[in-house]
Amino acid sequence: MGTNKCKEHFYPRNFLLSYDKPHHFTTFEWGWPSGYLLWRVVWALYHIIWIILTGVYAWQWTTTKSNEIKWFIYLTHWAYFVLTLSSLMELIAVIHIHCKRTDILKGECKEMSGYLKFVWVMFNVSNTASIAVSILFWALLYSDTYPLTTVDIATHLLNSAYVLSNLIITAVPVRIYHFFHPVLFSTLYIIFTVIYQEAGGSNGLDKPYIYSVIDWRTPDTAALYSVLAALVLTPISHVIVFIFYLIRKAIFDACLKNTGQ
């Protein structure tokens, strides 16, 4: 039985976005759709507030006022923007389903709508990108002499804390084969860094690169770090997300067994 369940995760169809329980996108693992709606409201507002604050406090990592526009070049902000957008899209989807698609809410619908598929892709990208960005920050950028700010904590620690806690309680499924969604996102960012630097762009501290580890003036080193980030770290981060999903399912199944359901 357990072997069959394991094999199910690796069927080729799991590359796709088909799913016969779309109501799982509207509730906690144990149910309670109305409580889940409140959960989505709280976190959408939280992330919106924090992404605004990352712009307000842009002076913390820039040399001039004009450099604050360079907020848009950093992977941290790309990832947090996607996380915020994902939270907002999840909220909109849940509200829409509560108001217009009660058939989904009741579990009567067996097909994924287009907007739920979009929500799922955003869910995959934002979760994995958040984990990857946190790992990159604490492994490569942070040091004892690094002036750690509240924004750093929010975008490199609390972001992943939210992702992992959300994974443990939401009913949204995670598929191991969906790793290519965040890989495409990572690849897009790497392409952006090449174009930006080749166009003469600089970072908030007026350095001729965005991050020193991907300085394309030393293409071999930059390419190595880029490949490791996109094709190694990103899939590993998605595996972490998938493991937390499996933990959630195992806990829930154990609870059902103990209650005799």
TrEMBL record:
InterPro entries cross-referenced by the UniProt entry: Rost
GO terms under cellular component: membrane
Membrane-spanning segments: 37-59, 71-97, 118-141, 153-172, 179-196, 222-247
Keywords: Membrane, Transmembrane, Transmembrane helix
Superkingdom, natural source: Eukaryota
Protein name: Protein rolling stone
One Pfam family cited in the UniProt record for this chain: Rost
Record-linked PANTHER family: MYND-TYPE DOMAIN-CONTAINING PROTEIN, OS02G0130600 PROTEIN-RELATED
